[in-house]
């Protein structure tokens, strides 16, 4: 289980660096897979991820993918992409000069 299991035990600078290196490595690998997945979707004709009119549909798709059993197995990349779409729409609305495109 992921939890703050050792919040009362401070990390040494070396431990913190090692923990962050693992996280950054995981993010790099996951991002690469997100990009590959999105490239396939674009090639298949999917569009409209950045249109606020599609926010509810994207949110529903995120929930549907996350509701998979067991624990949305093999849906993680799709869930992350839907979350990124919604996050980007929110950021674009909050700071119009800060666009992803």
Question: Can you tag this structure with a few keywords?
Answer:
101 residues, mainly alpha, extended
Question: In words, what does this structure look like?
Answer:
The chain is mostly helical. The chain is 61% helix and 0% strand. The chain is built from three helices and no strands. α1 crosses α3 (76-94). The longest helix is centred in the N-terminal third of the chain and has 31 residues, at 13-43. It is extended, with a radius of gyration of 17 Å. The relative contact order is 0.10.
Distance between the termini: 37 Å
- Based on CA atoms alone, the radius of gyration comes out at 17 Å
β-strand number: 0
Beta fraction: under 5%
Helix-strand category: mainly alpha
> SSE string, helix = H, strand = E?
HHH
Low-pLDDT segments, ≥5 res: none
Number of helices: 3
Write the SSE topology:
Layout: H1 13-43, H2 55-66, H3 76-94
Task: Report a brief summary of the structure.
The protein has helices spanning 13-43, 55-66, 76-94. With 101 residues, the protein is mainly α. The termini are far apart.
